[in-house]
C-alpha cells in the first residue's frame, strides 16, 4: 500500500492541469526573474499545456516522469559536490531549518522526490544546502564573511550558481499532467527560503506574493487536496513574514483552509497549530485594515461598525481555539510546540484587541498576556537547550542559526515595543540577547538586530517622557531618582546630547495611520546613507564618554531594584505623548537597519506626525 506520503506523491503524478497562467504584472512589481535580470517575464506559470504537448505520462512507479535530459542523478558520483550537498540537505538542513510538524512531509519527502524529476527544484535545494552549510560554519572560519553583506553568503559561488540554474529551469519549465501547479508552488517556497537566508526582504516578499497569487487561482482538482494539506499551512504561516513587514499578499481562499479555527476539538496539536496560523493570517489582514480605517473614517462611518463586529468575531474564534487547544495539548508529549502556539495565541489576541484603538495606552490592559509571551518564550528557549548527551550536531539542530519559520523572535520584539512595563519589556530584550538566541535568525527576523532596535525604542520613549516632563516642570507622581543607577548614570537611557535621530520632513498627516510607503521610506533612507558613519562614530563615543550609555547597557535595569512603584503600574511613567506610535524597520545589511519612528508632534495644533529616522548598528 505504501505510506500516506507515498500515496500522495502518486496522486500528484496523476493530477490534471488545473491552473491558468499568472501574469507577472498581476503581482507588482515583477517576479524575481524580472528583478534580477531586467527582463520582462510572465511570472511563474507558463500557458496551460494540452495532453499532446504536456511532456509525458506518469512512470510505472507512480512518480512524476523525468525530463528526457535528466536522469536519476547519474552524474552524482559518490563524493561529488552536488551529491554531498543533497545529502547535507537531507541529513542536516531538513531537521535544522524546517519545523518538525505538519510541514515535515513536504521538506522530508516531497522535496527530495521532486529533486529527481524537476531540475528547478533540484538546483534550489542544492543552493539551500550550500547556504546552510556556510551559515553553520564557526565564527571566523569564513575569511570573506566580514567583507560581504548578507551574513557572508554572497561569497558562496556554488550556491549562487545553483540558484541561477534553478531560476533558469523554472523559467523554461512546462507543466505536465503530473504537477501543473505543485512545481511552481514548491519552487516558490524554496526560493523564499534562499532569499530568507540571504536576508533579502524585497525578493522574499515577491516570492511570497507570487506563491499566494497562484494559490488564489487554483481550480478544483485531485492536486488541490495535496496542496491544501502540505502547502497551504506553510503559506499561511508566511503571513508573519509578510504582513509584519508591510506587505499585503493575496488572501488564501477559504476552500483551501485546512481546519476551521472554531472547531471544538482537535485530534492533534499539529492540527490545532495549522488552525491557529490560518486564523492569524486572516487576523493580520484584519488588523492592518482596521488600524488604517480608524484613522481615516469618521466615527459614525458604518465601516467602523463592520470592523468592530469582525473584531469580536475574531476574538470569539481565538477563544474557541484556545479551549480546544488546551484539551488536546494536555496529553501532548511535545511541550515546546504547545508553548509556541500559546506565544502566538496571546500575541494575536493583543493585536486584534487593540486594532480599533489609536492610543498606545490601550496596550497597558494586556500586561498579563505580555507576561505569558515572555514566560512561554523563555520555556521554549530553555527546552531547546536541554539536548540529550553532548553531541554538537544535535545542539545545532535544536537551536540553529537560521530557521525558515517564525518562532520566538517576532513576539519578543513585539513585547519590547508595545509593552511599557519597564522590567517586562527589558526581559523580552534580555531573552533576545541570550547566547542561544542572539545569533539566531527566523526567516527575516534577526534576534541581535531586533534586540538593538527594541532597546532603542525603550530609550526613545523614556527620554521623551523625562525631557517633556522636565521642560514642562511637571513632576507630580514622578520619582526621578528611580531613573538613575547608584552611580548616577541614567538607567537604560541615551543622554539627550547623544541622540542620533534625524528629523524626517516627509509629511504624514495626523488623520492617517503613521506609516510611509515602503518604497518611499527606502528611498528616504538611501538618501541618508552618509549618516551611517556619523552613527558609528557616535556609537563608539558612547563607550568612551563617561556617563554615556549604549543600548547594550539597558539590561542592567531589568531587575526589580531601582524602579519606583508607579513605574510598575499603568501607565508605567510613560504618558501617551511619550510613546512610539509606529516604528518601521528597513533591513539594510548585516551591519544594521534603518528605523523610522512616529510620535505625537511637540507643538500644539500641529497637523503632522513627528517623524525621525535613525540607523541602528548591530
TrEMBL record:
InterPro entries: Fun_TF, Transcr_Regulatory_Proteins, Zn2-C6_fun-type_DNA-bd_sf, Zn2Cys6_DnaBD
Transmembrane segments: none
Region feature Disordered, mapped onto this chain: 536-562
Comp. bias intervals (Low complexity): 548-561
Keyword Zinc included in the entry's annotation: yes
A GO MF label: zinc ion binding
Residue span(s) of domain Zn(2)-C6 fungal-type: 20-48
Keywords associated with the record: DNA-binding, Metal-binding, Nucleus, Transcription, Transcription regulation, Zinc
Pfam family, one: Fungal_trans_2
Domain of life: Eukaryota
The name this protein goes by in its record: Putative C6 zinc finger protein
Taxonomic lineage of the native organism: Eukaryota, Fungi, Dikarya, Ascomycota, Pezizomycotina
Amino acid at each position: 500500500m505504501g505510506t500516506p506520503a507515498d500515496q500522495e506523491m502518486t496522486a500528484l503524478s496523476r493530477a490534471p492541469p488545473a491552473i491558468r497562467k499568472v501574469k507577472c504584472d498581476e503581482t507588482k512589481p515583477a517576479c524575481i526573474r524580472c528583478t534580477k535580470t531586467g527582463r520582462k517575464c510572465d511570472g511563474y506559470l507558463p500557458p496551460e499545456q494540452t495532453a499532446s504537448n504536456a511532456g509525458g505520462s506518469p512512470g510505472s512507479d507512480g512518480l512524476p516522469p523525468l525530463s528526457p535530459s535528466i536522469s536519476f542523478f547519474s552524474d552524482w558520483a559518490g563524493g561529488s559536490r552536488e551529491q554531498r550537498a543533497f545529502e547535507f540537505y537531507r541529513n542536516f538542513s531538513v531537521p535544522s531549518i524546517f519545523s518538525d510538524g505538519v510541514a515535515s512531509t513536504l521538506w522530508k519527502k516531497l522535496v527530495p522526490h521532486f529533486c529527481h524529476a524537476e531540475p528547478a527544484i533540484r538546483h534550489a535545494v542544492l543552493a539551500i544546502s550550500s547556504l546552510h552549510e556556510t551559515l553553520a560554519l564557526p565564527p571566523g572560519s569564513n575569511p570573506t564573511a566580514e567583507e560581504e553583506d548578507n551574513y557572508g553568503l554572497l561569497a558562496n559561488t556554488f550556491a549562487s550558481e545553483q540558484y541561477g540554474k534553478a531560476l533558469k529551469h523554472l523559467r523554461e519549465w512546462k507543466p505536465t499532467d503530473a504537477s501543473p501547479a505543485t512545481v511552481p508552488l514548491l519552487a516558490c517556497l524554496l526560493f523564499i527560503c534562499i532569499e530568507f537566508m540571504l536576508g533579502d526582504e524585497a525578493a522574499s516578499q515577491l516570492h511570497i506574493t507570487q506563491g499566494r497569487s497562484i494559490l488564489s487561482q487554483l481550480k478544483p482538482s485531485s492536486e488541490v487536496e495535496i496542496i491544501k494539506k502540505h502547502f497551504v499551512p506553510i503559506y499561511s504561516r508566511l503571513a508573519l513574514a509578510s504582513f509584519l513587514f508591510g506587505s499585503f499578499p493575496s488572501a488564501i481562499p477559504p476552500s483551501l483552509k485546512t481546519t476551521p479555527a472554531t472547531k471544538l476539538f482537535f485530534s492533534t496539536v499539529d492540527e490545532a497549530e495549522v488552525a491557529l496560523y490560518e486564523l492569524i493570517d486572516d487576523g493580520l489582514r484584519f488588523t492592518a485594515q482596521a488600524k488604517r480605517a480608524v484613522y481615516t473614517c469618521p466615527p459614525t462611518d458604518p465601516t467602523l461598525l463592520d470592523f468592530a463586529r469582525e473584531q469580536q468575531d475574531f476574538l470569539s474564534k481565538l477563544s474557541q481555539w484556545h479551549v480546544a487547544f488546551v484539551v488536546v495539548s494536555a496529553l501532548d508529549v511535545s511541550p515546546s510546540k504547545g508553548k509556541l502556539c500559546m506565544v502566538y495565541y496571546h500575541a494575536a489576541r493583543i493585536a486584534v484587541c487593540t486594532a480599533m484603538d489609536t492610543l498606545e495606552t490601550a496596550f497597558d490592559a494586556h500586561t498579563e498576556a505580555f507576561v505569558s509571551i515572555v514566560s512561554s518564550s523563555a520555556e521554549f528557549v530553555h527546552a531547546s537547550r536541554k539536548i540529550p548527551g553532548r553531541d554538537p550536531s544535535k545542539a545545532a539542530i535544536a537551536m540553529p542559526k537560521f530557521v525558515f519559520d517564525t518562532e520566538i523572535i517576532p513576539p519578543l520584539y513585539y513585547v519590547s515595543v508595545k509593552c511599557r512595563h519597564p522590567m517586562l519589556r527589558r526581559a523580552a530584550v534580555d531573552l533576545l540577547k541570550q547566547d542561544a538566541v542572539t545569533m539566531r535568525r527566523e526567516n527575516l527576523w534577526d534576534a541581535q538586530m531586533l534586540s538593538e532596535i527594541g532597546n532603542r525604542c525603550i530609550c526613545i520613549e523614556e527620554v521623551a517622557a523625562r525631557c517633556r516632563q522636565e521642560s514642562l516642570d511637571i513632576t507630580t507622581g514622578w520619582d526621578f531618582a528611580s531613573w538613575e543607577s547608584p552611580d548616577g548614570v541614567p538607567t537604560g537611557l541615551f543622554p539627550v546630547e547623544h541622540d542620533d535621530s534625524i528629523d524626517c520632513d516627509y509629511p504624514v498627516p495626523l488623520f492617517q495611520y503613521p506609516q510611509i510607503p515602503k518604497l518611499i521610506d527606502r528611498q528616504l533612507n538611501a538618501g541618508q546613507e552618509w549618516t551611517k558613519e556619523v552613527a558609528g562614530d557616535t556609537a563608539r563615543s558612547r563607550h568612551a564618554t563617561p556617563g554615556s550609555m549604549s543600548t547594550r547597557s539597558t539590561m542592567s535595569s531589568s531587575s526589580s531594584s531601582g524602579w519606583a512603584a508607579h513605574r510598575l503600574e499603568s501607565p508605567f511613567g510613560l504618558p501617551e505623548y511619550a510613546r512610539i506610535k509606529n516604528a518601521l524597520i528597513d533591513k539594510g545589511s548585516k551591519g544594521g537597519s534603518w528605523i523610522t519612528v512616529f510620535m505625537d508632534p511637540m507643538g500644539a495644533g500641529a497637523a503632522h506626525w513627528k517623524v525621525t529616522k535613525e540607523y541602528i548598528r548591530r
